[in-house]
Design a protein that fits this description.
With 461 residues, the chain is α/β, with parallel strands linked by helices. It is 25% helix and 31% strand. It is built from nine helices and 22 strands. Strand 4 and strand 5 form a beta hairpin. Helix 1 packs parallel to helix 9 and helix 7 packs parallel to helix 8. The protein binds S-adenosyl-L-homocysteine. The site of S-adenosyl-L-homocysteine has 17 residues, from helix 5, strand 17 and helix 7.
Length: 461
Amino acid sequence: MEYRKNDRITLKIVDCGTDGEGIGKADGFTVFVKDAVIGDVVSVKIMKAKKNYGYGKLEQILEPSPYRVKPLCPSARQCGGCQLQEMSYDQQLVFKEKKIRGNLERIGGFTDIPMEPIIGMDDPWHYRNKAQFPVGRNKEGRLVTGFYAGRTHVIIENRDCAIGIPQNKEILDRVLSYMEKYHVEPYNETNGKGLIRHIFIRCGFYTGELMVCLIINGGSIPHQRELVDSLTEIPGMTSISLNINRKRSNVILGEEVRVLWGQSYITDKIGNISYQISPLSFFQVNPRQTVKLYSKALEYADLHGEETVWDLYCGIGTISLFLAQKAKFVRGVEIVPQAIEDARKNAELNGITNAEFYVGKAEEVLPEYYARYEQEQGEKAHADVIVVDPPRKGCDQALLDTIVKMQPERIVYVSCDSATLARDLRYLCDRGYELKKVCGADMFPQGVHVETVVRLQRKHI
Ligand code: SAH
């Protein structure tokens, strides 16, 4: 049956889409409904209709889902940050595990998937160590900060985000009072005027160190001393800086950082390894889960001290340094040069000498290394374990081909998108590897994304 715009229909929500929207079906017609939860029976108005699917506006919840809960954050619906706050946490985990399994079955063609129970959080709130709050004026002209609404740049006021650290509120209160007192203007996206664009906050969960960085459309701020005096009253304050961004674009951070007070970085630990983190460095946002994710990767790598390991897409070397503690030698590859600088610095900071880092595309660096090795050594390069942690688009085929040639005993695949993961696993399993273990890790409670760690074993024929 076909539906049209403005039709009203009743649906049972049976699935959840990539943006957390509910998905229901009526006579083969699929409807995407924002804010509907799996298990809800809802009445919706069709806002947009294509041949087989459409988008519906939630008008009424006729029967609430047993998994529906009251969101902790009053702004949960409007805010673009969280998508699943209205679903119980247990059910979020069920949904995420199902998503991984579904993709491995449908896209990867796997059956009898060796899934381990998903790694969830005991307390799925206040887990983020980083937040970037835009500053602006609302319709009444009042100074506001919070988060952008989904898909727009309207600021939803919120200084106390339910997945952020509790110190956010104190910091934001102080920065906004400073702005009010000294008439410091927020940046205005429409005319490019004004000074303060974003307030960037980072916290070392292990060390308790706090970083505040104001992203500004200019070179300095007035009454800098007064702001610093106010912020340094907050326990843990370690680094206060400015980031210069004069560009009229949506990119939040500029390239230049000027320290106003304290250090240019904070330090945090994951497991035994310390990391120095500057405003510009990439660092996992959920440190309590990161240690579990990396421990799972380490378990799957099954290292005994004699192995040669590659960590492809290594970022600032977080996984590499974790693995280096148990391996003979680790080689990390990453495309962003600054990240590799951080990786080298972090290796030194921890006295790790058995790790080496290369800047470049994994799909170029590894094949080149392989070719050069054969030319120079007269034999094929071999690795015992290869770890990959690619961005959402997954691994390039040239990389997968080289991995297969290097015949590692084990491949550990850490993935933030189980669809491309499934595609890549199929490729590897058609070329001599066997799926041994799969484990989901929830790095983003209340959000739709889920990480997956996989262990592949080489088949000996
Ligand atoms: N393993 C790291 C980072 C994973 S995120 C950690 O856990 O912290 C994926 C990383 O891949 C990013 O740092 C990104 O810059 C990098 N990247 C993206 N495309 C790449 C490519 N073609 N080759 C190498 N690295 C790439």
